[in-house]
């Protein structure tokens, strides 16, 4: 199946982008595709469509294709994992491995050979197809360079340690990153004997087989991690792939859609609103929602809060029942200074709005970069995936955020209030805002002509020419 947006690629260099399963992996690849187009290159995004719940829906691809008509999308079927009861990480890995024949057929069907295959970090088995067809393969790493440094090192470090789940608050030390508590390491790798951990270690161990890694970050933000990667200390005994920091690549905040929250923000004073948004998986228990509400109310500050139904209610209610889930009278008492919306807000537009003064975030890397591009201070509330690690980078290494205590179990109302007041009222909050203003300035410099990220992208193209 071919989504709308297919066009002749002419004589331009052609890059095939290959995301892992799920919209969360597809969207960063679309941002990379836009970047390639801006440099006069042709792009085809190849999307695996297995017949199970791990798939990116054809509807999602069609929406992205309609919004980005210059990008070609190709949706192709692949077998589902033969182990339907397995952990999602294993099912995804199985499906991507089984998709190799379809990817091979797609690459062979192109009018001219692809100049490069750009892979998601989990699409490591596609390296075999690239090698068979003689197509240069690079990885696109959509998270922090610090995450990459850690992941490349884990296949060598983890065999020497107990399972992270048994280490608790013991510090894990990887090159290029500050010490991280074992409980903050990637959730899918907490048990070293589990199938999902073994799959992740296999994937991380294969990344160095690529010809290089494009990273969605910029030099100023992560000098320590980038030095470790450049010095080759993350992958002992093997060559480390060359790393090209080409970011930040983020949504420009212009969705074209209207949402009631944007009109509400227009009426608020500049830098006065605390924005709370936790992504598509950011659903809290009813007890946690109560604590957040009480903390926001006690803080006295304006807020915009996107609320989802608690996990235990997802199957019963498509939308959260705010009157029942939040403290009695909360919505009425805060009506003049707060807005609670159900499920979704246009995050990229909200963080860039002049009324936004702080961002309570789940620490997903794309959200972090959006906040940096807006110069918006962050309050870290990591929820899943690599976000415990990102929290450490953001608070200790980059110094662009503060941390909410207690996120491992239940964040109390008093902690919510204290951190909101810290960012919005105190001298420490002022210093944080100044740091974010500098981060934004450095990010803009990196992406200008002659900036570090543009230079790195040019070096990637030169590297590709040499190896081709």
UniProtKB/TrEMBL annotation:
Question: Could you tell me which PANTHER family the record lists for this protein?
Answer: GLYCOSYLTRANSFERASE, UDP-GLYCOSYLTRANSFERASE 88A1
The residues that cross the membrane are none
PROSITE patterns, per the entry: UDPGT
Documented EC number(s):
2.4.1.-
Name the InterPro entries on file. Answer: UDP-glycosyltransf_plant (IPR050481), UDP_glucos_trans (IPR002213), UDP_glycos_trans_CS (IPR035595)
Primary enzyme class: transferase
Is Glycosyltransferase one of the keywords? Answer: yes
- Top-level taxon of origin: Eukaryota
Coiled-coil stretches, from where to where?
none
Instruction: Cite a single GO MF annotation.
Output: UDP-glucosyltransferase activity
Which family does the UniProt entry place this protein in? Belongs to the UDP-glycosyltransferase family.
Q: What is this protein called?
A: Glycosyltransferase
- Kindly state which keywords UniProt assigns to this record, in alphabetical order: Glycosyltransferase, Transferase
